[in-house]
Amino acid sequence: MKISYVILFSFLMILLLFAATTYINFKQSEKINENHELLARSSIILKQSNRFQRNILNMVSGLRGYLLTNEVFFIQSYDSAMLENDEILDELSVLIKDSVQQKNLLDGILELNKYWINEFALPLIEARKNATVSDSSMNAFNKLYRAKLVTGMEKEINRSLQQKFKEFSNHEYAVREQQKLALSSFIQRTKDISFSLTLFSFIAGMAIAIFIATHISSGIVKMVHMADSISKGEYTVSMKAEGKDELGKLGRSLNNMAGILSENISLLQRKNEELNQFAYIVSHDLKAPLRGIDNVVTWIQEDHMHELSPKVVEYLELIKGRIIRAENLLNGILSYSRVGRELQPNEVVDVNELLEEIQGYLPEKPGITLHIEKNMPKLFTEKLPLMQVFMNLIVNAYKYHTKANGSVQVYHTKNDHYYEFYVEDDGPGISKEYHKKIFMIFQTLENRDSFESTGVGLAIVKKILDDRKLTIRLNSEPGTGSTFIFTWPLNEIV
């Protein structure tokens, strides 16, 4: 299976687990809210129940006070409590509509309340109102008062009413306790499920992450090792590429690439060997006929000089010059082909001593002096390539210097990772359009018939520095001289 599919399915599974956890938490919050609503409703029921009982006591007190004193204040208290109880009973009927037992208790309370009002309160209140009309009415009231209140039946009804409200409240308290226990159990169960799902999601996520990371990293590590081997020149390496995922396909592609690269490198090496052999053969075998031509010209000059006209003598000298140029070109080809073929061992190189040695090989050119900075560094590096670079640059500065008096200066600067060496002259200078051309093999800025140059020296310098991933640049303008700046690694020996 593709890694992208594995990652996608893994994340989908984790998302589903978290979605399930979220859903369970959501249901838990709904259950808690529902329970809070039930508790709030239960609190209202208990509160209204207590108010109802308190109002009953107020009604009884108001009734007795009115009957004893005939004060309107007491009957007003009675009426207010009775009206409030009617509202309470209506509200309680709505709140307990889902509880059959509570509804039965409330119906019983309602019947007792109506019975007490109709059988005791209303007749006594009516009789008390009429008692002031005549003595017979007062006697009738007293008789009714003794019949209704003194016998104790009214108190029994009140006690029965209080008992029913007590049962009503106790039942409500029991329901509240059950709801609390159910909610607590539900919350604990939800916590356990949520924790289990979260833990499982975490473990699954970690397992998937470890699997993907291990699978991908192991494949990448193999590819890195393979790439390192290729960079070191081991082009025949390969890696074990299994599976149909992206890493397997990439591994097989790398194996194919390494195989093609190995074939191409082998072919390139054969071509380079053939080219080197060709350069050697050309430079070596062509010298023989050139020497033969030179010998023939020499013999003609020696044996027939007195017979030759001045024009023929001039032509013979021109031929010999062309032969020398051809030999120099062949030597240049051979030198250029040898650059980079043989690695030289590193050794301690004192640049001051190296430049003094080069000074002994410079062509004689009166009026041109070489100035070398005194404090040149000591390096642990290849001597011959560095010597070739300095030799070609300094000889080039001497060769193309056209002034009667001039100088060539060699100095350096030090950077963080490399040295910059400068070869500066005050010669004729070079136009910017030729700054790249002069580093190409066989390219010169002078007419070959008027100036003897092979155009190989700067090309050799460029090749030596390119092989080592170093740089060379030129600062020059016509009439201002030229400065060649090249870099060399900072492997200084103190």
UniProtKB/TrEMBL annotation:
Cross-referenced Gene3D superfamilies: 1.10.287.130, 6.10.340.10, Histidine kinase-like ATPase, C-terminal domain (3.30.565.10)
Sequence ranges assigned to domain HAMP in this UniProt record: 214-266
Membrane-spanning segments: 6-26, 193-213
Single GO cellular component term: membrane
Reaction catalysed by this enzyme: ATP + protein L-histidine = ADP + protein N-phospho-L-histidine
Record EC number: 2.7.13.3
MF-aspect GO terms: phosphorelay response regulator activity; phosphorelay sensor kinase activity; protein kinase activator activity
Pfam families per record: CHASE3 (PF05227), HAMP (PF00672), HATPase_c (PF02518), HisKA (PF00512)
Xref: SUPFAM superfamilies: ATPase domain of HSP90 chaperone/DNA topoisomerase II/histidine kinase, HAMP domain-like, Homodimeric domain of signal transducing histidine kinase
Places the protein is found: Membrane
Protein name: histidine kinase
Native organism: Ohtaekwangia koreensis
